[in-house]
Amino acid sequence: MLIEKEVLRDKISDVLRGWILDGELKPGERIVELTLARKLSVSRAPLREALWQLERQGLVQIRAHHGATVTQLSEQDIREIFEIRELLETHAAKTIRAAGSAEAKAALRGALADLEEACRRRDIRLFSAADLKFHQTLWEGGGNRHLQDILNDVSTRFFGYELIRDLPHSARFRFDVMAEEHRKLVKLVLEGTEREIETGFKKAFAGFLDYVLVRFSEKPSARRAAE
User: Fold this and answer.
1) Regarding beta strands 67-70 and 60-63, do their DSSP bridges make them parallel or antiparallel, or are they unpaired?
2) Is the Cβ–Cβ distance between 180 and 207 less than 8 Å?
3) CA Rg, the chain, in Å?
4) Which of 30, 48, 70 lies at the terminal end of a domain, its last residue?
5) Where would I find the H helices in the chain?
6) Rounded distance between C-alpha atoms, residue 14 and residue 98, angstroms
7) What CATH number does residue 178 fall under?
8) Which residue(s) pair with 63 in the sheet?
9) pLDDT tens sequence across 177-200
10) pLDDT tens-digit profile of 94-112?
11) Model pTM?
12) Contact status, residue 152 vs residue 142, Cβ threshold 8 Å
């Protein structure tokens, strides 16, 4: 039955997600379907469906003729993703501001409230989901479906990899700083001029990128070292 097939896929996905986030399957590690199918005592069909599901969550990368690997991004990958995100999210923010859509603004406030709650709870899993949802809400508010598709494609991999890297060190995560930075973004969308949005988003994304690279490298940033 279809329902039983979906339940099996979801169960396999949950197990693999746990292994990835717990570090049993490490970033860049190749996922050998036959080996995992035997280990889980399942056929390869539901396993493959589970892997596709994990790819949509950004935790797995699947390449034709190469199979699946646990998501791993280089510094160059991350920089390029942030370059795309800054450009397109700034455009979406200016579009929302110009359109004055009460619905889009209310949705953004709601997404911010969820992110702030995750920060208050100091829950990195909740924060990761809320952070992605916040930015997706921004993209959707811009009303450009193709822009949304591009950002979903490049950003999902980043947010998945970010969770893999941050989860073991969540006690050191700057929840309060991240909440404040997202509040600034919302204020810019609601009240900023076009120039203020451009300047503010550029500064915010530079800060986000710097913090990501510091966390992932476990080295002090040049900015902080100079302080």
Assistant:
1) antiparallel
2) no
3) 19
4) 70
5) 2-22, 33-40, 44-56, 75-99, 102-120, 124-141, 145-166, 175-191, 194-217, 222-226
6) 42
7) 1.20.120.530
8) 67
9) 999 999 999 999 999 999 999 999
10) 999 999 889 999 999 999 9
11) 0.84
12) no
